[in-house]
Automatic annotation (TrEMBL), chains A, B:
InterPro entries per UniProt: CcpA, Cro/C1-type_HTH, HTH_LacI, Lambda_DNA-bd_dom_sf, Peripla_BP/Lac1_sug-bd_dom, Peripla_BP_I
Limits of the HTH lacI-type domain: 6-60
Keywords: Activator, DNA-binding, Repressor, Transcription, Transcription regulation
Lineage of the species this protein comes from: Bacteria, Bacillati, Bacillota, Bacilli, Lactobacillales
Start and end residues of each HTH cro/C1-type domain: 2-47
Protein name: Catabolite control protein A
Organism: Apilactobacillus kunkeei DSM 12361 = ATCC 700308
Length: 333, 333
DNA sequence: CTGTTAGCGCCTTCAC
DNA sequence: GTGAAGGCGCTAACAG
């Protein structure tokens, strides 16, 4: 058993043409006579030749791979985005280098670096916090970057999102219409601009529009985990809150179970809206009312946008805002 | 703004040494005087030089990236494995090319091919069905491959798993001890050897060990989705089944909700065990009793095993079987 | 339409 | 300890 050694040179020799010609048929260059093309193709098949993408990358300066930075694949929100990204990437003949960052700035910076050293053609970044360092890295990188389901208040990079503020505003108003006035805002980290600058704002403006005074005590900041939500339920009960908007599904799931396990009936005595409509929302009992984000599409559109940028096509809109809807299931009246 | 052009040659010139020397300090080769080393390092820093991994890969025939084939990142079982894989990969300075296959043989073959053309140093394969074609591809590839949480009855490739048969046997026996005799085996596709050759076998042997006659009618084959489970509940009710073992968590979640929504109380009138203990198991109400697979570890160990193989280290055991436990929560008595 | 010739950026003997 | 030189496998002008 020898190692795979057959190179473009071998197939050139075997088929009695030059490597240039082989390269041409490989790359679908039209300037090849049909006959020669077929001859070469046959040899390629006979020799079981497989072009070396690394050599190709070095010569052409294109690797047909894009980097994807994700906080955690295990998170249903991000993995849904990732799936959309990969599908579109595959469609455009790209592969994906996936790297978990845990939203940790150091890891992000480090990963970004190794991605760049691997000469990826582009990068899709997902992350909840984008700080100045990262923005600077992005700028310096001279590599196409698109944010997917991730917000940069500075709009320093192209991105694909929904209107988070508007969505939360909408949810909150429905809660108000249902007669609630003590509505909690159950949030993941406020270091995240989505939460602090967008969702919270939507929450506040819904309150104001309806003459309800904003009460800082009803804003609960957590790390956004299921456990956080579960524990938070106790506090929510003590604070006599009658409804809540949660910024992500696992947190909401925790709150829901926390309330139910403590004897509160949802939605009769407590209403709850969540924000991502991951699979989880439908699996909970009662099922969670939610903003329905087009998660897969956000990833898909982000990847599509990236291909355009890598391809230097004209871009009409670098800051895509996809539509969302609200589905009322059983956690609201 | 120029493109990044600084190469090893530039830093060689700037620091007044040859590229060979720069290459040496880059690769931690000891045969470099401390003084020169520092000088070079400084220039590297000044020039903001970043070695080109592609060129490096071509020259050294090592890309420090491994391919990961996964049915669907969106699936909690596999994404947990993927997380373990990535963490260990990162620890050993590898990156991961992640590709979704949907368990589709064509996609798997195609992805495998492009992975090989990209000269990955190794591959972690996750998938529920491994057929002869795939085995042949593996064999022909001459590339280290490890299966993670995926079973190959032929043991043609190194793998990391738990003892699925034993685990299901255990669950089933507990159900029997609780007084059940009409126990369903709710399964994903029987084309999958884990289900057909392992889990089902465990189920059957538990029955036999306890003098219960195996009833084929109580084996329900589905595609393993949440919806499948939900629908299946009706049939389960009609068949007067009093307990079930499900082969994966989403399926179990569907069954659970399907039963509950149809007015059956769990675990009083129906007991349920599931098999993967993903996050979901704890989020359901009642919480799902389950086999607790060390998902993250399976991925991590698989990746570690792969590094050893890539590194041509001595391997004591190519077919790792990790321990599992059973946690009884509220879906069983 | 096809062949020739340079590299792409780095590693790796082999001398010195 | 350090430099020179030859590839790695392929693409990309440039000729013809």
């Amino acid at each position: 058993m020898e190692k795979q050694n057959v190179t473009i040179y071998d197939v050139a020799r075997e088929s009695g043409v030059s490597m240039a010609t082989v390269s041409r048929v490989l790359n679908g260059n039209s300037n090849v006579r049909q006959a020669t093309k077929e001859k070469v193709l046959k040899v390629i098949d006979d020799l079981d030749y497989r072009p070396n993408a690394v050599a190709r990358g070095l010569a052409s300066k294109k690797t047909t791979t894009v980097g994807v930075i994700i906080p955690d694949v295990t998170d249903g929100y991000f993995s849904s985005l990732a799936r959309g990204i990969d599908d579109i990437a595959t469609m455009y003949k790209y592969n994906i280098i996936l790297a978990n960052s845990d939203d940790n700035p150091d890891k992000e910076a480090s990963v970004l670096n190794t991605l760049l050293s691997k000469q990826v053609d582009g990068i899709i970044f997902m992350g909840n916090e984008i700080n100045d360092d990262l923005r600077a890295d992005f700028k310096r990188s001279d590599c196409p970057i698109v944010l997917a389901g991730s917000v940069d208040i500075n709009n320093s990079v192209p991105s694909v999102n929904i209107d988070y503020a508007d969505a939360v505003k909408n949810e909150t108003e429905r809660l108000i219409k249902n007669g609630n006035s003590r509505i909690a805002f159950a949030s993941g980290s406020m270091k995240q601009d989505v939460n602090k600058k967008y969702r919270l704002k939507g929450y506040v403006s819904a309150l104001e529009n309806n003459g309800i005074k904003f009460n800082e005590k009803l804003v609960f900041e957590t790390k956004g985990t299921y456990e956080d939500g579960y524990d938070l339920a106790e506090q929510i009960i003590n604070d006599k809150v009658t409804a809540a908007v949660a910024t992500n599904d696992e947190l909401a799931a925790g709150i829901l179970n926390g309330m139910t396990d403590r004897g509160v009936s949802v939605p009769q005595d407590f209403e709850l809206f969540t924000s991502n409509n991951t699979k989880l929302a439908k699996m909970m009992r009662p099922q969670l009312s939610s903003i329905t984000q087009p998660l897969y599409d956000i990833g898909a559109v982000a990847m599509r946008l990236l291909t355009k940028i890598m391809n230097k096509e004209e871009i009409d809109n670098r800051y895509v805002v996809l539509g969302y809807e609200i589905v009322e299931r059983d956690s609201t009246k």
